[in-house]
Amino acid sequence: MATYQAPLRFMRFLLHEVFNTQEMLKKLDIMEDFNVELMDAILDEAANFSQQVLLPINQSGDEQGCTFNEGAVTTPDGFKEAYKKYLEGGWAVMGCDEKYGGQPLPKALHLMIEEIFYACNTSFGLYPNLTNTAIQLLETHASQELKESYLAKMVSGQWSGTMCLTESHAGSDLGLIKTKAVEQPDNSYLISGTKIFISAGEHDLTENIIHLVLAKLPDAPEGSRGISLFLVPKFLPNEDNTPGERNTVTCGSIEHKMGIKASATCVLNFDQAKGYLIGEINAGLKCMFTMMNNERLSVGMQGVGIAEVSLQSATAYALDRKQGRHQGSKEAADSIIGHADIRRMLLSMMSMNGGCRALAAFAGNLHDVSVHHNDEAERKKSERMLAILTPVCKAYFTDASFDSCNNGVQIFGGHGYVKEWGMEQLVRDVRITQLYEGTNGIQSMDLLSRKILADDGRGWEEYKSELCAMIKEAEEVNVLGKDCTRVRQAMGNLSSVTDSLLEDGKRNSGLVGAVATEYLNLFGTVTLGCLWLKMAAVSINTGEDDLFYKQIRSSCAFYCRHQMATVFTSVNRIMAGSHTIVSPELEEFELTTLVN
Amino acid sequence: MATYQAPLRFMRFLLHEVFNTQEMLKKLDIMEDFNVELMDAILDEAANFSQQVLLPINQSGDEQGCTFNEGAVTTPDGFKEAYKKYLEGGWAVMGCDEKYGGQPLPKALHLMIEEIFYACNTSFGLYPNLTNTAIQLLETHASQELKESYLAKMVSGQWSGTMCLTESHAGSDLGLIKTKAVEQPDNSYLISGTKIFISAGEHDLTENIIHLVLAKLPDAPEGSRGISLFLVPKFLPNEDNTPGERNTVTCGSIEHKMGIKASATCVLNFDQAKGYLIGEINAGLKCMFTMMNNERLSVGMQGVGIAEVSLQSATAYALDRKQGRHQGSKEAADSIIGHADIRRMLLSMMSMNGGCRALAAFAGNLHDVSVHHNDEAERKKSERMLAILTPVCKAYFTDASFDSCNNGVQIFGGHGYVKEWGMEQLVRDVRITQLYEGTNGIQSMDLLSRKILADDGRGWEEYKSELCAMIKEAEEVNVLGKDCTRVRQAMGNLSSVTDSLLEDGKRNSGLVGAVATEYLNLFGTVTLGCLWLKMAAVSINTGEDDLFYKQIRSSCAFYCRHQMATVFTSVNRIMAGSHTIVSPELEEFELTTLVN
Description:
Two copies of one chain form a homodimer. The first copy, chain A, is of the alpha+beta class.
């Protein structure tokens, strides 16, 4: 079984020392209860619960998978019991409105707890996660009536939630959906159509399932401007909010997937199922993005969590496994952790994962400011920066995590390929994170096209100031000279690339598509460089020199020298962008015919 | 099911137009039969056989896997029948000595046929492949007596072969093996020990299995200089060469793996099993490398074959799948193949895979010269270059192929993650190629340490001349100016990095380990750049301008502008190498303790 202990020291370092979440919350005048002690206690509990309850059923859940029989889905052994303990532990109510029984939670802390849950069992984590983000959507957009009928049961975790977007011919392009909604005299709607890839669409963990469904009214405008959002319960609630009449939404089958096999991925058939409008007609996609944006941060944490398991397992194995000798050794064989190529992989994993976690904490605090700050200008500014960072957290984290999981397998050698050791499951499980909630290609288009260009670089300039402040903070510490130089140069690269795209990109959507993925890589790499400098500076400013702080500085050094080197490739590719994928030579390139 | 048609046009282009294999063979005065027509006929037949017999049982083989019951291994449905057809088609005898019923085959052609077999069914391909490379070993190193007893049956494919190296505590470091060999009065040996990860170690395809086993004599020197090689048959042959007495080698279990599930990966227990020495005592590892080097080229072709399936399947899907609109389109949705980010991925896959195939053809011709040329100096020169290229073919091809398979999944979006479409199987199957026959980290150490540094750069200088000749050839064509400039600059980078490592590397084995992986990346990237220039130059020199040639030039353009951009990262990392993994800051870095 994989090795895992929640990285609590690192998490506390980020919350309390690097981003000072407690002080930030005080300024917002909310969640004053969340002092250092309370946050630490919650982290400890999350670690205990996950390691004791979720981790032991992760490998067996993968082996057994979900089973489908005549419309019913059975989760693997132990999942029902674990879900019960999850509710008993009070985890379901986290981050929800107190009015419906919820408990507010700083977002940075919330994301770390999610990381821990996902690390121990991503398949399990998806069930309550979808409920949680569905709750956020309902809190923001649903009518008071719907809130009263559904939220308390969902917040308590007795009922779960789903997001029903994809259809077989409409994934990245939701404008093409065919699911229909027809209004009824009682203001409800009848929903008809088939949705695919619905996580937790059917299962045996809760007594009711609340589907949030995108559909089109008969007279809706074409494309994405004609999409409305509906709440469609599996069981229509009775007046006393117990599950009543069975609605006509049924599970047709579940997918057989590469990984996250204990998560039920369902085909859902809506056959004139009763539903209720959420938000305005034809404004469903905008509402759905409340859920989607939270999901994207959450998917990023799936990546970080799984990659952390890979890092810790590979580290333990590399300490234990003896092959070959180090220079000057007299042993028959030494631990492979001493071999430079193994250290390169471990340090890559560690510096990428730590950097991603730091960005998540940063984004989490932005979230709280964007929601709770008294000053609207501050709220809007944080909102713009968070909007920029959401696709970065989703795509950069998950790409990095996929690499980390593969490095983990590589360090295990042939043993990494064998199921017994649990390493190949990490690769299979993490692979989905690059695909769902918008492929990473879609994220990169969102970043460059919508968040940078469409905003005329406004959010970008604000964000850039934040990053430059981190570099400056590190420069003032004095001992990080070379690392600072590298990051400042890379920041300059990112700046000039962004300026040039702000100039050319709007006129040339082909260019944007051609360079977006590489732009997101560059953006993420520079961001993590700044965050590592900040962490290293904080570690020096404590005046202490324990092993943890030394390792923060070592990770920073490695990141700045090894990972930052990808900047050269990114810049070169972006600059060559217009000459590669959109060049005349390649326009005539019929990809079909090279084969024979 | 995945889409695949053997890339015959490309293969013919390489054999006949780029590397002129027919003329090369004439100069060697062997295999004169192998004119263009014969090679094409064999390629056609290989494609027909593989597509009709092997491809249809690839996905079902993955689903069903091999089963183990009381020492016996059953291959999935259809494998026995397919193996019978494989023998009937005369494929087993390919590349073997005519004396034992074999049929010589140009190595470049052989590698292409392997690519086709592996593309259609890697798991199947492993069974005859191991037999084939075992035959090469026996032809080179076995006594006349052993050859007479075993080769005819192995060449006919009635008996199969294995290579038994790894033990649970000895993988990358074979010096640690514990399997013992004790000499008997009749000059045979009794072999005792347990080998793991033995592909085709037990199965139901052949009537006998011939194991080539590394073991140590009781008085053998420590480490890798004390390893001897033995032939251990499952059934001891009778005098008439029919399988006789059952030998005491048994299969204890098979591994449950991430992929290649239809290939039996066995634990083999040798319990005083009767074996026969091959080659000299304590020189077993050197003999085994005859097999290993052929295997490494073969593993490279597994990568290329599987990646080709990914490319073709993703291309077909991208043509068919309609999401989003191209600039100015009036359709509801256009094929995603027009989206720049999709084209980027397809062009990456195509340019990497085509470049790898070209390097395989180049290496194949070197192999034939190294074996058959009349002039010893020519033989040795080709041998040195092939020695350099073997780890590159193994590691660079398989790393590139893993990326290609993941790009394939990414293009399919969520459908790529679902088993039904066959794309995720490609990722799982190809992942092993980076691990077995020496991890890619081991390959990079082999390249830099043994093939470049230990040879004092002699083979490297010869190889460099070959590459520079390709660049020059392209420069003379005149229309490839910018691409030539990029490749020449990268060649300069590779040259100066190599010179600097020749200077510093021998004194500092830590440095070599720290930079080896990135050095192999750089080496492979520059090599493929030169090969793409050569292919583009040939396509221009034909004077024709059909679509195929245009696409060769487009691939060259994309490769030189997009893929070559990784050179900047590689050079930067290598130059920073001594400051990263082996720097004093990181020496004290205890990787275990960051966790908590």
